Amino acid sequence: MHDTDIDDDGPAGHAMTEIALALAMGFFCILVLALISMGAGTSELTPRVVDALRVAAPGSASARPLDSDETLLIHHNGRFLDAQGRLVALAAMPRSGRVVLAVDPARPMDAALAARALVPAEEVTLAPLDAAWLATLAEGDTP
């Protein structure tokens, strides 16, 4: 008679233990990955980034007069014009103050952004030209 209380099933018992351990480790790895992925990306956007990403719906803007510190700049056919239709030298423009850059709404966005990048002012707002401005510019006269 043996004095051991250990039940030994032989090699088959050891294989089942190994499989159970492998399944437990796999489950633990999936659990850790799920917890990490659920916690990622919870930071909120700063207000400056949110304002930069805000886009107005088409047709939602209405015409308004310029503020006293705003300057109207029109980009048409690769040239920059003021409100009276005179050519503007961008190098002579002050860096301070706000500039409203009016562009043809039919032009691609990358062309409008490229024109915006050429303006030396610190604060530049893009605005679409309305039908009256487009007709006037097509005739070669400004209102």
Summarize the structure.
This protein has 143 residues and is an alpha/beta fold. The chain has helices at 11-39, 47-53, 109-118, 131-139; strands spanning 70-76, 79-81, 98-103, 123-128.
Helix-strand layout with pairing:
Blueprint: H1 11-39, H2 47-53, E1 70-76, E2 79-81, E3 98-103, H3 109-118, E4 123-128, H4 131-139
Parallel strand pairs: 1-3, 3-4
Antiparallel strand pairs: 1-2
Structure description:
The chain has a domain at 67-139. It has helices spanning 11-39, 47-53, 109-118, 131-139; strands at 70-76, 79-81, 98-103, 123-128. The protein is an alpha/beta fold and 143 residues long.
Key descriptive features of the protein:
alpha/beta; 4 helices
- Described by the principal axes of the CA atoms, the overall outline is rod-shaped
Count of separate DSSP helical elements: 4
Arrangement of strands in the largest sheet: 2-1-3-4
Mean pLDDT level: 77
**Major sheet:** 4 strands, mixed
Secondary structural class: alpha/beta
Percent helix: 25-40%
